[in-house]
Structure formats: C-alpha cells, structure tokens
C-alpha cells in the first residue's frame, strides 16, 4: 500500500474559546484535544506525522509525540522555507498520499480515516474529501503527494495554510479536470469541528460515551454512566462496578471485581482487585487487593495501602505506607508514616509530622495498637506489639510488647461547678 503521511494542521485562528490557551490544548477526557486527532491518524496507519505549526507553536510542541516532524509557518516565516521543508518530508515517496487533518477534529475515528484511504486508492482518486452522512464537505481530505506539491502550493502564496483549505484544493483541482470524490463517514458526530467551548463540551460527550462503551464491552458495569468522567488512558478490570458520580483520571488502573464510588475521584493511581472505594478521593497512590476505603477518605500523593486494609470515614493518608490487614477506621490523620501489618489505629489518632519548618517520618511496627486520640510526634518509633493508651502524646520510642501512657492522672475537684456559678440554677 502507498505511504500515508498525516499533515496535522494547528493554524486556525481562535474563534469562540475566549481563552489564553490555544484551542488545540483544551482538555477532553483528560488530554489535549489535539492528541485525539494525532492518535486517530497514527492508528489509521500513517507512516509519518507532520504537524504544521502556526501561532502558539511552543505551547503546542509540548504535547506532540517525539517522532513527529514539526514545520513552522507564521506571518514572520519565509514561505519558501515552508515549502522546502514540506518537499524534504515528501521527497522520498512522491507517489504516496497526504492526509490533511486539522487539529480541531478530535472525534474523528481512525477507522473512518483508514476506510477513506482505502477508498481513495481503490477509486484511483486524486483527492478524496471526507463528508458527513448528508454529503457536506469537511476540512479533512486525502490528496496525492505529487499533486499537493505541484498543484496546490504556490511559492507566491502568502498563506500556505489557506492553500491547504479544502475549498481551495477542490477549486483548483476540479477546474483542471482531476478526479475529486467524497467519502461519507458512517457517523456525522465524529466530524464535529471544535471552535468554541460548547463544541468542546459536545466533543467530550461523544468521546466519553466511546470510552465508557469500550469499558462496558470489556465487562465493566456502569450505573448512571452519564454522571461519570472516565479519562481516555484509564484501565478498568472486568466485573468492576462503577457507581454514579465517579471520576477516574489520568493513567489510573482499576483491577477486577472492584466497587468504585459513588461520588469518588481517583487520579493517576493503581487499585488492585476486589477493592471497595466509596465516596472518597485518591491521588497518585496505590491500594492493594480487597481493601475498603471510605466513605469520605482522602488518600494523598505518595501513599501505598496494603491488602485487606480498612481506611474508614474522615481518614486522611499522606505520603504513607499502610501494611496488610491494618485498620485506620475513622477520624485520623496519617502523614509521612510507615504503618506495619495488623496495626489498629484508633479514632482521632494523629501523626504529628510537621514542626513548622520540616516534615519527618514516624514508624509503627507490626501488630501494634494505637489508642483513640493519640498524637505520635514525629520522628518517633512504635515497635512491634506495642500498645499506646488512649489520649497519649508520644514523643519517645516505645519498645516491643510495652504499654505507653503519656497523660496526666485524673484529678477531681468537688463542687467546682457550683462554686464557679456554672450550674445554671
């Protein structure tokens, strides 16, 4: 088959975005709009990816694949240099085909591009324009490489991006009697052109529906999927149930047989099999198999939660490791700490990890018991099988099998309330 070179155009003037950010970089399901156009062209079989850069090129370059060929053209650049750069890219295979694909078509499918390319070759077309189901033209076309260089581009043209507009190409070539044909996409929604935030939202709805359908086809259940946000790179194992209001972001990986949500957010994290994650948030962390989290827990970056662990309501974990079979049931803060296996952390326990200048770590050994309302003042070590009495503030190491009590003895002053006049009688 002929070589297919994709020209991704990022030159369109801003229209309705009303933003300081280039429209190509606005996010759809967690990644730049432009990245969907690039992925579609590569999956369709493009042998080369050429990105034609206009304004804001430095910002756009940051999201481009390393293997892409970048050609700059703007008001200040030399048009002849622009043409020569294109000639250099296409010189090795002038008998190939160029896919002209503007970056504002994020919903275009790789299958549509591939089918259009096959149709282009089969019909021996000079130009094939992708159309919607009603036959209306889009700005996406396939054109023979040699024709592009000899008939479309003109050294005298002031704006080469304008030369690449479909209307100009058809006008020039149709007048010469060359074979110009259309290829109908199977669905018009994939040909949505994004020029404002309303269209951006519509494109996100289209792509999100595809993402969720893909996971459903792979054995994942969604309850009220229209309330969920699942990013494009997320992986979900079969027989997992995603409850309403769930957001799975970035490169998150969810195992099999999990319950995620309702109303939970997980970003760039790993969740192993059999986890129940309810009404909670986790960022850049990981959870072992068969662990229960929530409701209303917050697992902050750098945390590793083991297997068969319970992280209960209103618990915050930050940059900490929780060993297998341990419990932090409720109302606790564990920050910069290493908690062993089979540890019980009582209600209201706090790792005091910050002294106003620096943060330090504490360690709790296996099978230790930390009572309610305990303060562990970092850095401190609680060794295996040690017990900490409720209400204690611990500043020194606690040996194995020891009981640590750090609180004043109870004092009772008789009739103190009456003498202070606080009895409200």
Layout of helices and strands:
Layout: E1 4-10, E2 27-28, E3 31-32, H1 33-43, E4 48-53, H2 57-61, E5 69-72, H3 79-90, E6 97-102, H4 110-122, E7 127-131, E8 137-144, H5 145-152, H6 160-163, H7 166-175, E9 180-184, H8 197-217, E10 221-222, E11 229-230, E12 235-236, E13 241-242, E14 247-249, E15 253-254, E16 259-260, E17 265-267, E18 270-271, E19 276-277, E20 281-283, E21 286-287, E22 292-293, E23 298-299, E24 304-305, E25 310-313, E26 316-318, E27 321-322, E28 327-330, E29 333-335, E30 337-339, E31 344-345, E32 350-352, E33 362-364, E34 369-370, E35 375-377, E36 381-382, E37 387-388, E38 393-394, E39 403-404, H9 416-419
Parallel strand pairs: 1-4, 1-6, 4-5, 7-9, 10-13, 11-14, 12-15, 13-16, 14-17, 15-18, 16-19, 17-20, 18-21, 19-22, 20-23, 21-24, 22-25, 23-26, 24-27, 25-28, 26-29, 27-30, 30-33, 31-34, 32-35, 33-36, 34-37, 35-38, 37-39
Antiparallel strand pairs: 2-3, 6-8, 7-8
Helix pairs in contact: 1-4
């Amino acid at each position: 088959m002929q070589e297919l070179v994709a020209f991704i155009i990022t030159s369109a003037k801003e229209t309705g975005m009303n933003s300081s950010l280039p429209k190509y970089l606005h996010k759809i399901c967690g990644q730049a709009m432009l990245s969907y156009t690039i992925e579609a062209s590569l999956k369709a079989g493009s042998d080369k990816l050429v990105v034609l850069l206009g304004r804001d090129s430095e910002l756009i370059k940051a999201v481009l694949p390393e293997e892409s060929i970048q050609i700059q053209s703007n008001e200040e650049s030399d048009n002849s240099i622009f043409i020569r750069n294109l000639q250099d890219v296409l010189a090795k295979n002038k008998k190939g085909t160029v896919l002209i694909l503007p970056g504002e078509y994020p919903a275009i499918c790789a299958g549509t591009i591939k089918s259009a390319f096959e149709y282009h070759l089969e019909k021996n077309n000079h130009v094939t324009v992708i159309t919607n189901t009603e036959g209306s033209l889009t700005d996406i076309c396939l054109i023979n490489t040699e024709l592009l260089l000899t008939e479309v581009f003109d050294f005298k043209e002031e704006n080469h991006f304008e030369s690449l507009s479909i209307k100009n190409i058809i006008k020039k070539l149709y007048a010469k009697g060359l074979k110009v044909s259309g290829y109908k996409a199977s669905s018009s929604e994939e040909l949505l052109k994004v020029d404002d935030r309303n269209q951006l939202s519509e494109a996100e709805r289209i792509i999100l529906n595809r993402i969720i359908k893909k996971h459903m086809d792979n054995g994942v259940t969604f309850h009220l999927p229209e309330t969920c946000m699942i990013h494009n790179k997320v992986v979900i194992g079969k027989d997992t149930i995603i409850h309403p209001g769930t957001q799975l972001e970035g490169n998150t990986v969810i195992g099999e047989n999990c319950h995620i949500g309702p109303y939970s957010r997980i970003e760039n994290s790993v969740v192993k099999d059999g986890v129940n994650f309810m009404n909670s948030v986790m960022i850049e962390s990981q959870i072992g198999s068969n662990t229960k989290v929530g409701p209303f827990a917050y697992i902050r970056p750098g945390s590793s939660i083991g297997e068969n662990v319970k992280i209960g309501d209103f618990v915050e974990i930050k940059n900490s490791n929780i060993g297998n079979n341990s419990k932090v049931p409720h109302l606790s803060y564990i920050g910069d700490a290493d908690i062993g296996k089979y540890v019980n952390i009582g209600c209201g326990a706090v790792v005091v990890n910050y002294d106003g200048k620096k943060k330090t770590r504490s360690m709790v050994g296996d099978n230790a018991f930390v009572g309610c309302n305990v303060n562990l003042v970092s850095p401190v070590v609680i060794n295996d099988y040690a017990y900490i009495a409720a209400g204690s503030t611990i500043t020194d190491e606690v040996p194995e099998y020891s009981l640590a009590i750090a609180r004043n003895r109870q004092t009772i002053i008789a009739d103190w309330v009456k003498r202070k006049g606080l009895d409200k009688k």
